[in-house]
Recover the amino acids of this structure.
């Protein structure tokens, strides 16, 4: 390889890394901020906390997310997108409505087992202090969950596998409220077994 070719390859590699680096940093910022929201709440951390943990300056942080509201919007968007992707996986992999509901509850269980809370559940606790765009994004997340669960509940009822004492939308809202509440109330003890009991009782009430 000639010196010119080697130099050109090194230049192209540097350019590629330079292009990818901002996106990688933005993702790392979201990773840290997401964990902080899930453990402290949206108002429980500062840009300084994120910058310190990542070893970057606050100016670098502001380059990617100009303010905390912009960061919060990005967090909800990514969390919502990943949640939708997981729901699609469950819909394609789980054969019965009951299995889908069990796998859905498993999403919350895995977050709780990791010592975290649902990102949007934590934000919901601070709803009145959030800017309107964040509030709308938060409501959209829960609407996605309610809609998906309602469709699964309708399928299970039609198949004769599930029994509902209320309409599917109301039951879906009850399920989400129960799971979010179980995470919150069992947080002080980190009692995963108690959380599993809540899931079991919740699903037992739906079995025909």
């Amino acid at each position: 390889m000639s010196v010119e070719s080697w130099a050109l390859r090194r230049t192209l590699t540097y350019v590629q890394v330079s292009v990818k680096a901002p996106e990688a940093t933005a993702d790392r910022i979201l990773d840290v901020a997401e964990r902080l929201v899930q453990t402290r709440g949206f108002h429980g951390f500062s840009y300084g906390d994120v910058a310190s943990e990542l070893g970057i300056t606050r100016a670098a942080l502001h380059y990617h997310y100009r303010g905390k509201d912009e960061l919060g919007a990005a967090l909800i968007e990514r969390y919502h997108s990943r949640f939708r992707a997981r729901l699609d996986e469950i819909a394609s992999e789980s054969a019965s409505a009951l299995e889908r509901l069990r796998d859905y509850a498993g999403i919350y269980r895995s977050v709780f087992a990791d010592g975290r809370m649902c990102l949007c559940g934590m934000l919901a606790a601070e709803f009145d202090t959030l800017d309107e765009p964040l509030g709308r994004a938060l409501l959209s997340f829960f609407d996605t969950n309610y809609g998906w669960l309602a469709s699964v509940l309708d399928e299970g009822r039609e198949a004769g596998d599930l029994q509902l004492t209320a309409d599917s939308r109301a039951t879906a809202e009850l399920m989400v409220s129960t799971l979010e509440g179980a995470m919150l109330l069992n947080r002080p003890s980190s009692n995963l077994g108690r959380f599993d009991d809540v899931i079991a009782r919740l699903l037992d009430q739906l079995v025909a």
The domain at 3-204 is CATH 1.10.357.10 (Tetracycline Repressor; domain 2). The longest helix spans residues 3-40.
